[in-house]
Structure formats: C-alpha cells, structure tokens
What we know:
Blueprint: H1 2-18, E1 28-38, E2 41-48, E3 55-59, E4 70-76, E5 78-79, E6 88-89, E7 95-104, E8 107-114, E9 119-125, E10 129-136, H2 139-152, E11 176-181, H3 198-214, E12 219-222, H4 232-242, E13 246-253, E14 264-268, H5 274-284, H6 291-299, H7 304-328, E15 336-340, H8 343-346, E16 352-359, H9 363-369, H10 372-393
Parallel strand pairs: 1-5, 11-12, 11-13, 13-16, 14-15
Antiparallel strand pairs: 1-2, 2-10, 3-4, 4-8, 6-7, 7-8, 9-10, 14-16
Helix pairs in contact: 3-10, 7-10
Amino acid sequence: MRARSAATSLLALAACALLGAKRPDGLGDVVGVQHWSYPAFSRVVIQISEPIAPVVGEVPPDPGGDKPARLFFDVPGMWAGKRFAEPIRVGDGLLRQVRVGQNTLENARIVLDLERYGRHRVMQLAAPSRIVIDVFAPQAAAGGAQRAAGERSSSGRDREPQPSPTLPMDLRPVRMVVIDAGHGGRDPGAIGVGDLREKDVTLALARALRKSLRARAFEVVMTRDRDRTLSLEERTAIAEGAGGDVFVSLHANSSPRAEVAGVELFTLQQNAERQTLRLAARENGVAPAQVDPLQRLLARLRLGEAGARSSLLARQVYHEIASGMGPRWPSVREPALKEGPFYVLYLSDMPALLVEAGFVTHPDDARRLSDPRYLRAMAEEIAQGIERFRDQAAPLVAERRP
Length: 402
C-alpha cells in the first residue's frame, strides 16, 4: 500500500513538471469542468474537444490518513496544460475536490478526491464531447440522509433534491415523480404555427401535471418551474439528487411536413426507426450523423431493470391517453408508443418516459397545445397512467401473523 502511495506521489510530481512542458502537436483539449452536488449524489462533467473514452482507476486512501480515496480518469490524446493549475473545490461531503492536469505529455488525468464513496458510473455524451462521472454515497449513509430529508419535506411544496433511494428498484415504492419541462431559457426548442414555442408548451404542461400528481398524493420535483436554461446533465442530476422514483420528460414535436401530428411516447432503446433517430438527434442536441455512435454507446449501458419498468410505465400512460383523450378531445389521434436513444432517458437510473405532447408544426395540434384546457386534460391522463404504474409496480410485502 505504501509503495503504491509513493508511486502515486511520484506521478503527481511528474505531472507538475509537465506543466512547463511544450504541448505536443495533434492533441485535443480539456475544455472545462462542471459539477452538481446533492447529499448522496455528485455529478462531474468534463468537456473535451474530441470523443475519447477515459481509462478509469481507483486508489484507496493513504493508511496514514493524509490522502483520501481517489478515482482517476486518464484521457489519452488530451491536453490540460496550465488551465487547471488549482484544484476545483467541491466539499459536498462526497467529493473533496477535482484535479485536472497532465499525467504524461499525451494524456490528461482527472482525479476525484473522495470524502465518502459507495459507487460510481461513467458515461459519454457527444456534441460537445463530455465525460459524465457520477459518484454515489454508501447506501447506509444515503439512507440516513434521505430519512432526515424526508422529515423536513412538505407534501404541499416542491421537495428539494435529496439523496438517491437505497432500496433495489423492484422493492422501492413509487412516491416521487421528477417532471422535466424540456428546453427553456436560451433554448426555445421547436417553433411552430403562430410562433408557438416548445419551451412554453412544456412548462405549462409540467405545471398542470404537477397539480394532477399532487392530487394523487405523489411528491413532485420540477427540473424547472420558470423559463431558464438547463443542460441535459443538470436536468438528470436534479432527478438523481432528489431520489426520484419516476422521471417524465415533456416535449413537443415538429416536422417539415405540416400534416404530421399526434402524441408520441418514448422509452429508452438503442435501436430505433430512422424518423425516431432524427428526433433523438434534435432532443440530444447533436447532428443526425452523430446518433449512430450514440447507439453504440447505449448498447453498453444497463437497460435491464430500469428498462423493464420504463416499459411498464409507458404502457400505462399510453393506455390512459389512448382511452381518455379521445372522448375529451375527439380530434386527437391515438398516441404512438416508441423507443429511441434519448440522452435524457439514460442519464438517470430510474424508470423514465419521454412524452412528445403533439406537433407544434401541425395546425390542429398547435391550437390544442396552446389551450390550457387541453394541457390540463393531457396532464390528467399522464398522471393517471403514473398512478396505475405505481399500483402495478408496488412491491409485495410479506406480513407475519401471530
């Protein structure tokens, strides 16, 4: 152990010496670092100029207590130089700090100095290229923090983001829904008939859905409750930090063909039709040509447990919209149930659903999406579907009788 710590110290000294070295030709850049912190979950996002997969390693704490446990991520072909000479202080109880520098002349290294640690996961995003690193607290610590936070929460108000649940997904009661109103702020989303903006539709629908869910005794967290800009990473960090049980991302569609209309529901999958891939490219903020690499990435991700429950969630919401919206709004077409590779659906562990509430580019859809009565009716059907999912997904509890 001491030998390993000594070797790590020598590497650190070597990295310091590299700060004065001349940059080799042909390297990409470490562009920036962002982080979001919650009691039992932290997310660090490293933006790089080229899509490079990091090499991940772990270093246990120094036996003498001088150094904490560390995660390190070597990024070949990248240059950090002197840009990050000072550590990025976090101090959120999980991460002490993030350090970025050169490990060798042709490899950058990101080091996460840990204060508490249960597990981590690493993902990659495109356009721009990002490495997403999630760190989770130990389960016992997360559970204690969550119980304390629960005692402070109020059912009449949006709950502040709290730790991720510690029970396995199939044993977890469905209590909290995270509603994500797509786009916002500098990002208007799709713009359709009469300059109808997607970001306005999604926020109005999210507020209506919050009211409907609260009436059914759900706790609700909104990723945004006003017109503000949020990255996909921050939206899902809010969901993870809150310990949500269901994630619903609300959107409105568009098409170059004005006759295309209807509600579409999406769950996560790496395979999708060409039309869905174009939509996924738009919602992910990437060019259509970049969706194929995204599919290969998705193939490496876990879709098992969350995927099955997401499919159950989607079927229940689909059933309610199909059976309920027709009588209320006879002109509404039957919804479509599809799968696609959407970033916002796989950046969190919980069952997730993406709702395209209609096409802002279709005259009838746009008129309905501008009508508060329609949005309230749609919210009622989505909430009813989530309630049916809650009832069907409820864990079976064995009761012992005397």
